[in-house]
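Q: What structure does this chain adopt?
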Amino acid sequence: MSQVLKTRYAIVGAGIAGVSAAEAIREADSEGRILLVNGESIPPYCRPLIIEVLKGERVFGDIHLRPSEWSEKQRISLITGDPAERLHPEKKTLELRSGRTVEWERLLLAAGSKPALPPIQGLENVPGVSLYRYEDVERLQRLRTPGARALLVGIGLIGLQAITALKELGVPVIAVEVMHKVLPMILDAEAAKYAERKLKTNGIEIRLQTSIERLMPADPGEGACVAITDGGEEIEFDLLVLAAGMRPDLSLLNGSGIKTGRGINVSPRMETSVSGIFAAGDVTEYSNWIEGRPEVHAHWVNAYRQGRVAGLSMAGGNPDPYEPVYLNSLNLFGLPIITVGASRVDKPEGADVYVFETPARPAYKRFVVKEGRLIAVTFINDVDRAGVFQYLVRERVDIGPVARSLFEGGLEGVEFLDRLHRDAVRGNVDWPESMDLIKWYRKDHRHTRWGTSQDRNPGISRSGSGMEERDADLGKEEPQERVRGKRQV
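A:
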């Protein structure tokens, strides 16, 4: 007879959503048993930092989500290397791969996402990897032999992480993207050109609006593998890196009756359509108040916040509803990029779009205002006051007639902020938790080739100034800014 584990709270998934939920539960309930199911065979870790392990800037112990004694101190039962495989909501049970059964009173599904594999003929016959789990890093390290060339499929956020890591490791990269722009999920078409130019000047070959149709493995002793594009081009490569996006991992839900779209449908309390079952993190689909439709908010900070809301709700609390806002911050070969909100939309309907460019720097800023509220912000190579504008988006501040003055740093805009939002300008607001505010992950990047000169991760700072990096090849002179907006779309 299989072992039965009884618990008040069961959590499937030991990423940041599951860990933050467990901590929130313990804050609200000091006695109830918490069981955290970690499907991987290693301790919970911070997925966004596996690239730094690949580059040799950190070791695995540096990216643990919590210290080794965390689960014991929090009185959380942590199961490692035994993934959940079957869910029975009507019985309130969960079957693990080992054959053990978990009986729960309340359940959190935080299984995260999994790589989206493109339909490419011959995919299984070539040496390839998806950079998602720590085991992927170990596999890529084995594949990275001297002289190896990489073919990267997908130039999104994960793809760019892979590109910068491979470049720093001395691996030539050819990158293909099916969309018409790089970073298609966070940048508008004009902004994407800045990122594309930066990639090309750093030796990355790029093929846009291109898909791979067929892969042919190398014959023994014959050298490289070959990829055939939809345009008939043949690309030789030695290792394949798949970064074509992620999708919620819904494999546990078969026959469960839990409602889903692209992800699990949840309420503002993060409860699913089945009472007593909650969900958080990349596995969920949540209403996007900016664009007015359900979206999968696959982002580390959002997962952290969702987990806390879910944990407090499970323990009987009444947390503030979760209202996600897309927020991305990255450093592309020394080029800082920050986006907030619906920044990827090229032609937002019924909105005013303000674009500011400084070509010689080069720098690009874009603000999108709809019905008096800021719904999208893009900063490239000029990230001054990025934190303030994140605040304006997140808090849905009505900037109305002072919008242009705000964007240009004019007196009217400055007085507006000082009069009504002084705490945001001074950095004294309750900012959403981010990697920049979690001390465990702060590090000195000065030893890295492309890193910041400041002792913190690139991101939105409390002061609101954001990243301060500048390209090494930029001139000393401050060129005149070219304003291309306002324009009505």
